[in-house]
Amino acid sequence: MTALRLSVESLIASPNEKALAERIGEHLRVTTGRGPSPSEARSWERSLPALARDLADAGLSQVELLVEYKLPLTSKRADVVLAGVHPRTGQDSYVVIELKQWSRAEPSDQGEHLVIVDGVPGRELLNPAEQVRRYCEYMSDFLGVLKDRPQSVHGAAYLHNAMDLDIDGLHDQVRDERSRLFTKQRRGDFHKYLRERLADKPGAEAADRLLSSPVAPSKQLMAYAAGEIREREQFTLLDEQQVAYELVMRAVDGARRADFKQVVVVTGGPGSGKSVIALSLLGELYRQGRTALHATGSQSFTQTMRRYPGRGSTRIKNLFMYFNSFMDAERNGLDVLICDEAHRIRETSTSRFTPAAKRTGRPQLDELMSAARVPVFLLDEHQVVRPGELGTVQAIERYAESQGYAVTRVSLDEQFRCGGSRKYEKWVLRLLGLDGEGPVPWDGDDDFEVRLAHSPQELEAALLARPGSARMTAGYCWPWSDPRPDDSLVDDVVIGDWSRPWNVKKDRAVGDAPPSMLWATEPSGFGQVGCVYTAQGFEYDWSGVIIGPDLVARDGSLVTVRSENRDPAFTSRKAVSDADFDKLARNVYKVLLTRGMRGTVIYAVDPATRDFLADLLPRLSAITA
């Protein structure tokens, strides 16, 4: 279930607030794999009964409450969605409520929508009125039941412990009817607001329709990047994403006025919105006429950015660069340099093709930080997959501090890819031994499918049968041949009587197969097996992952087998120790296993590994169409 359904009567009739919190906590534990924090439990104990009393006093006792409602394809949860019937139209009507126990808060000078809250020192938060407005907008974008009726969802923040003077200035940020803000001093206004949008009629059917609504296709990052940069923001930034965005924009203003350098580090797991933030920043800076560039260490990612946002515009294409493009850059020549996929930063920018005169040994981090007044690094430390990559928070912060640069760090601690399933990401980390805990059985998630295939044919057929985009990937355990003279690919990935080619090696199409950098985004990429270097940074609806013989189950856990890996980057034991190989190989599979937005199908070449996974995962035949 994406929410716990409660009635006004049940909340008022139950005087045991602690039991209520325990019930909601158990729901959270089952649906997310994590228990509530003490502050969450206190919030439920104090805020939900107060809301129920207000609903009863407003004469809306038949409205249904959806508590901890999970926004589609994210791990974000709205405190409460009230489901009912509109008093004038008779149609479904929904009011998203963000409950805050704050007694005092004031606007922050660090960003337009940021606030400082008593009792939460040293941290800016999003104004709850803006927070709930964005939740409403996001629901309208993604829920089929709201597709043609976006006006049926409304939003309000309710600070039931605060008086107006306690939050002076927060009302100034209210934009519209989706971002209303009420205090305990304005309970009467709150009741009127609710009565104008909800009738005292049963809300169960409206709740059913919301909870069973089909989820519209997500706004794919690449397909909408052109509009993001040229015209207006196409993405709704939520909570920490918006905080990160506003902190960077304020750092840009401050660095320009005061002539100093500010380094911003944004961390987050797969699909947490790092690249969406990057594009939103680039778009706004571009519209303001600021000097800004986007850079990555991935040819696939950069070339895709150039292809889609830059279609028809050389100037826009030139906004997308590589990390090694800044060896000769003028110091502070840019206002902002957005370093996306910063876990791929290397020790130096030099390669075997670099002229001897330019082999200075200068750290790539120095080049990137020097190039802009505000260098922004967006990264996931579990995606370091190649020797020589050193894009970690510790490395970036240590180098910045050694140069006397101020550092601001923002953590995107929510999961947006993998159907928003933090539970699945945690399961993958445990499976691969990346978080210090052992593997556990997958016990399901309403929003994300994980299944085990017992043959590569079964895996491929399942992906073909699923609606939406799909790709197959594998560990680098087979040779990788050049195309034949007749412009056909060699079926290098051979498993029994099944064989398929790797994706194209280079930046030109081979036959019907797209060039390597477009494998993840062009439909004709299906049918070739992708590797980590072409999959990293991208997403598709369904992910089929072939675990090669370089990762096998032995004695109840997965171990790496270096001799089975064919990646040339790992050939030299002098350059890559066995311990480093073990960590990097596990990170490779972590990347491959977290590319899917709706589900993952796994096949393991090693029979013992398949048996091991069979005890953790349901069979593929259990997938329902």
Automatic annotation (TrEMBL):
Residues 260-400 form the AAA+ ATPase domain. It comes from Microbispora oryzae. InterPro entries: AAA+_ATPase, P-loop_NTPase, SLFN_3-like_DNA/RNA_helicase. It comes from the Bacteria. Pfam families: SLFN-g3_helicase. This is DUF2075 domain-containing protein. SUPFAM superfamilies: P-loop containing nucleoside triphosphate hydrolases. The lineage of its organism: Bacteria, Bacillati, Actinomycetota, Actinomycetes, Streptosporangiales.
